[in-house]
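In the current project phase, the collection of sequences with tokenised folds has grown. One resulting record follows, to show the layout:
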Amino acid sequence: MQWIYARFAPVLLALACAAGPRAGQAQVHGVEVQAPRPAGWMTGDVIPLRMRVAVDAAFPLQRASLPKPGPLNYWLELRSVDVQERAAAGGKEYLVALDYQTFYVPLDVNTREIPALALTFGQGRDALQVRSEPWSFSMSPLRGVLMPDAAKTPLALRPDAASQLLPVDGALRLTLAFAGASTLLLIALAWHYAAWPFHERRARPFARALRGVRAASRDGSPQAYRQALLHLHRAFDAAAGKRLLAADVAEFLAARQAFGDVQGDLVAFFQASRRVFFANEDARAMDAMPWPSLTGLAARLAAAERRMP
């Protein structure tokens, strides 16, 4: 909204004390009313008015003199009143913000008037009053009282067009088809990675072990390290169909060519397991095969397991 800033010259200063007019005017350093555009308002519009008053520091604004929000008459309502106070040269400056809302329904271009605003500054006999003149503005109707003949006036206001339902059958079928295809792909992906609800599938023991190792790695304690080793031991036992020991690794890898690239890591794994479970050397085992190496071994075993026929 573009504002029109105008200094209203005919602002009246009335003193509520016995002092003369010059004394009252000397205590008010300036009055400015900032008004919006004077025309083009319609029913329901909010009209902002601003009043700025500079006075001596000894004359504070009496808050009780501010207008109260609420209906002013049958067509005008004061929506809100806000006051900002700040120090200025020689005293104080007050910015009073008032928001009015008009509910007048004009039949033709009509002039309305917002009442004058009177503010009181100071206390007792030294109080003075600053009053602004009423502010007038024009309101316009959406259309005139007499409607022209629509057949003769192409730009005449016409009734709203009747609403029509858009066909959505094709889009609905396409949406259902994509939803079904997405569901099938998600099921196939879950089966491939042995995820829920296929996480208990016996053909993927290393997939279960990988989830257990990752969960234990978030703890990071020696006890969690032992649990991670047990997850991999159980996966090896399930894959081999028997209890797999370090001496059986070569035979296990020979029967399963997909695991051939992890032979070196398997040797380190069984060495770390021997230190943990037989020598109680948890710290040395975790140094020899830290968590990233253990998690990486479990991930490579699970990936090789997916490639197996």
